[in-house]
Amino acid sequence: MNTRGLRSQLKDSVPVTGMGPQVGAYGVQDTLRSGFSSVKNELLPSHVLELSEKNFQLNQDKMNFSTLRNIQGLHAPLKLQMEYRAARQIQRLPFLQSSHLALDTLKGNDESISFEDILNDPAQSEMMGEPHIMVEYKLGMM
Amino acid sequence: MALSNVLQIPTSGFNFENVAINVALESLLEGGHTKTPKPMKTGTTIAGLVCKEGVVLGADTRATSGEVVADKMCAKIHYISPNIYCCGAGTAADTEKTTDLLSSNLTIFSMNSGRNPRVVMAVNILQDMLFRCTGASLILGGVDCNGNHLYTVGPYGSIDNVPYLAMGSGDLAALGILEDRFKPNMEMEEAKELVRDAIHSGIMSDLDSGNNIDICVITKQGVDYIRPYQESEYKDKRQKRYKYGPGTTSILTEKIVPLDLEVVQETVQRMDTA
């Protein structure tokens, strides 16, 4: 569901930063995992849509919450965000597919089909990660 | 094969990993005198108008890929819902996929609410989708509880509600015919003839439109999808199938030898249908 944005809420949208270097531990480029860094790759997005798609969902959520706050008061977005947080924790281990059923129902994604459901389905991705490394990454040990 | 550099399950949606590779490949290939294959576009003439009993949509049937006609009988009028149809111009894959997504969303909605969707709903969903990721320009026409509507949706998400309309590469020629002879509240037959003439002039004046003309008539009672409404005079004499009909080869002699089989062993195996 998209908000037809109230223009006054634009100040809350997430600013579009550049691509940014891939920082690993200690704040420097993780050459072993993400390869050599190149200034050209980081500064310029290769496709016009890449930057806008990166923050699209975040921006939508922020605008929706901010509109809701202005109309119904602070309790409405607070309660909704609490529910989102609870639903986001019902997941399987990092390397397994989770259905995100509760989160989808809360967000209303169970009643619409968009590009996220058709393109690049994680259930059919051709790459599989190492389970131990993925769990360690999720717990912050990597 | 588990890779150790994959730290998270990839997110669904658009994946831009190949864009840089494609750009590099194109620059390599251009220097080597080979061309990358062009996507199939429906360089097109599409037109629509609102008449007394409903909406009439028309389209040509040619799809081009660069300078070659890729499909002579391409269907450019897509089904969205029982009371809404949509003509698409632009890259063929874009129009197909966008209209398919729209149709799926509207089907989910009508199953949830038990009603036929309204045309404004389809237009709004399309507008959001196209603003986010551009692609096709579309003409949406339909009949709902509020009357007969005709909308145009531009490739970047702009919409317009108009009584008559033409889009595509042949739209200037078609729009000339429509501007000249359109009257509000026309009769059905007159409206069909006008749309046919508009598409015909688009076909005559534009290289990227051609072949046959399809017409789709939407009224409160139902939809009449006439495909093709008019076939072009320059038809191919090539057949697509080269099968010979029965009786092509004459039979000289006929000899029948019956095989005598006797039952040697019979076993019955029960199927468990519980």
UniProtKB/TrEMBL annotation, chain A:
Note the superkingdom of the native organism. Eukaryota
Q: What cellular-component terms does GO give this entry?
A: cytoplasm; nucleus
One GO term of the biological process aspect: proteasome assembly
**Record InterPro entries:** Ump1
Pfam (any one):
UMP1
The protein's UniProt keywords, in alphabetical order, are: Chaperone
* PANTHER family per the UniProt record, alphabetical: PROTEASOME MATURATION PROTEIN, PROTEASOME MATURATION PROTEIN UMP1
Family membership: Belongs to the POMP/UMP1 family.
- Put simply, this protein is called Proteasome maturation protein
Q: Which lineage ranks, top first, belong to the organism behind this chain?
A: Eukaryota, Metazoa, Chordata, Craniata, Vertebrata
From TrEMBL, chain B:
Instruction: Write down what this protein is called.
Output: Proteasome subunit beta
What superkingdom heads the lineage? Eukaryota
- GO terms of biological process kind: proteolysis involved in protein catabolic process
Q: Catalytic activity annotated for this protein?
A: Cleavage of peptide bonds with very broad specificity
Location of the protein in the cell: Cytoplasm; Nucleus
Domain named Proteasome beta subunit C-terminal: which ranges?
A: 237-268
Q: How does it assemble?
A: Component of the proteasome complex.
